[in-house]
């Protein structure tokens, strides 16, 4: 279980770092042109996108750094819980926009983040 949690945590960390930095540094008009599923960014103000990007980056750092450094590892499941809530918002936005495929992808990220949260809170916590 511990290995599975570490693998999923690593994948989520890479995903959210990439996504978060993209929202922080890529202009929303350029981001909207990258893929059809990225047109949602035009529904939000640039400041809101930067806030979402910052939350993703902070969540990604919170998924891995506390455990690696051994400093307050309880922050790992808290970060995973925060990313779960962020993805719940993403799924609801995708459903509202009628983007079923993208909602399923975001839902899978939500499920993985929830698995890490539950796993690190109850199944395989860092502290006994």
Per-chain topology:
Elements (H helix, E strand, L loop, with lengths): L1 H24 L2 H7 L11 H24 L5 H23 L2 H24 L5
Question: Quick gist of this model?
Answer:
The chain is an all-alpha fold. The chain has helices at 2-25, 28-34, 46-69, 75-97, 100-123.
What does this structure look like?
This protein has 128 residues and is mostly helical. 80% of the residues lie in helices and 0% in strands. The protein is built from five helices and no strands. The chain has helices spanning 2-25, 28-34, 46-69, 75-97, 100-123. Helix 3 (46-69) runs antiparallel to helix 4 (75-97) and helix 4 (75-97) runs antiparallel to helix 5. The longest helix is centred in the first third of the chain and has 24 residues, at 2-25. The chain is globular and about 45 Å long.
Largest sheet: none
Q: Beta fraction of the residues?
A: under 5%
Contiguous uncertain segments of 5+ residues: none
**Shape verdict:** globular
Alpha-carbon distance between the two ends = 15 Å
Query: Structural class, from secondary structure content?
Result: mainly alpha
Give, in order, the helices and strands.
Answer: HHHHH
* Rg for CA atoms: 15 Å
Count of discrete alpha- or pi-helical segments spanning 4 or more residues: 5
**Average residue-wise pLDDT:** 93
Q: Please provide the count of β strands.
A: 0
Oligomer: single chain
Helical fraction? over 70%
């Amino acid at each position: 279980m511990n290995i599975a949690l570490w693998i999923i945590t690593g994948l989520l960390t890479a995903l959210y770092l990439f996504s978060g930095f993209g929202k922080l540094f890529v202009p929303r008009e350029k981001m909207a042109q990258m893929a059809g599923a990225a047109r949602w960014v035009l529904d939000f103000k640039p400041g809101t996108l930067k806030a979402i990007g910052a939350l993703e980056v902070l969540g990604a750092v919170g998924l891995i750094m506390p455990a690696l450094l051994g400093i307050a590892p309880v922050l790992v499941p808290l970060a995973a819980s925060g990313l779960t809530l962020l993805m719940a918002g993403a799924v609801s936005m995708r459903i509202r926009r009628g983007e079923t495929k993208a909602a399923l992808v975001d839902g899978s990220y939500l499920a993985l983040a929830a698995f890490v949260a539950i796993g690190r809170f109850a199944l395989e916590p860092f502290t006994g």
